[in-house]
Amino acid sequence: xxxxxxxxxxxxxxKRRPDVVRFSDPxxxxxxxxxxxxxxxxxxxLPGAAPIxxxxxxxxxxxxxxxKSNTIAARLLAGYPxxxxxxxxxxxxxxxxxxxxxxxGRGPKSFxxxxxxxxxxxxxxxxYPAGTPATPPAKDADPGRARNAAFFEKVYGDCRKxxxxxxxxxxxxxxxxxxxxxxxxxxxxxxxxxxxxxxxLDALPAAFxxxxxxxxxxxxxxxxxxxxxxxxxxxxxxxDIATARADYWRWSGGGTAGASGPIRYRNKIPPEIVxxxxxxxxxxxxxxxxxxxxxxxxxxxxxxxxxxNTHTAPPR
Length: 316
Ligand SMILES: [Zn+2]
Prior knowledge:
By secondary structure, the protein is α+β, with helices and mostly antiparallel strands. It has helices at 12-16, 25-45, 64-69, 72-79, 111-116, 149-156, 190-202, 209-212, 271-279; strands at 84-87, 91-94, 99-101, 168-173, 180-185, 238-240, 282-284, 295-298. It has two domains: 1-131, no CATH class; 145-298, Muramoyl-pentapeptide Carboxypeptidase, domain 2. The chain has nine helices and eight strands. The chain has a three-stranded antiparallel beta sheet. The two termini are 24 Å apart. Bound molecules: zinc ion. Zinc ion binds next to β6.
């Protein structure tokens, strides 16, 4: 049995209302069960971790091997080592002794509410389809686009308070081909990961250069255009590669403010570039219905290597 992270499969509400993504209670309940199963994994991964509380043991007939690698707890612990120290059925525990709730208790959310104010649990609502061809995503399928601001501010800092820049480190972009100095946070090893991406991209043939240089930007303390949510660039975890071959949903002629037309998917970024980023823990904005094909951001919790991400589309 695979634990489903997507709420869309079999989601009757979404089928009836194709314009609204509903995050149904049964899905939340199902995911909550998956979190409980993950406690076994969390305890195994962390020496000295607190014991599983009574009543939280996985069901005897569960396919625990698959379930534990597919859980939110396992993903957070593996993606934020030394930062997230424990995840229980209700809370994420951090190394500084603080906790955050997994679920904000607000119940099912519309797509807009999910995007604007996701809880930590909501960030996993859609599986990220790593390693698959770049096909047009289904309506409102934006895996990774919802970010719980409190979580990311806890991990990387709040740029509005000025505590992100001190942790930015230099990354040499394409050492042989460019040599430009760009910035990424050293927290959680992001700058090191981006340097590894850069070194791998540097080995690609010259035909790829147009997609990669000059880089269009990394750290930037700003909101996402047209929203009140902090951009991933605000945390020093994101990069926009070159603009020359970039496509963006707001440029597509559909889905713009006041327009009701469908968003027309466009992408020119080669899969070789996407694969290198994904192999190092960066998700790609080209996998979003609201696409941004020059954008990559470090989201290891969505890219655990052993996880089979197969669900990308809501039902039609
Ligand atoms: Zn970007």
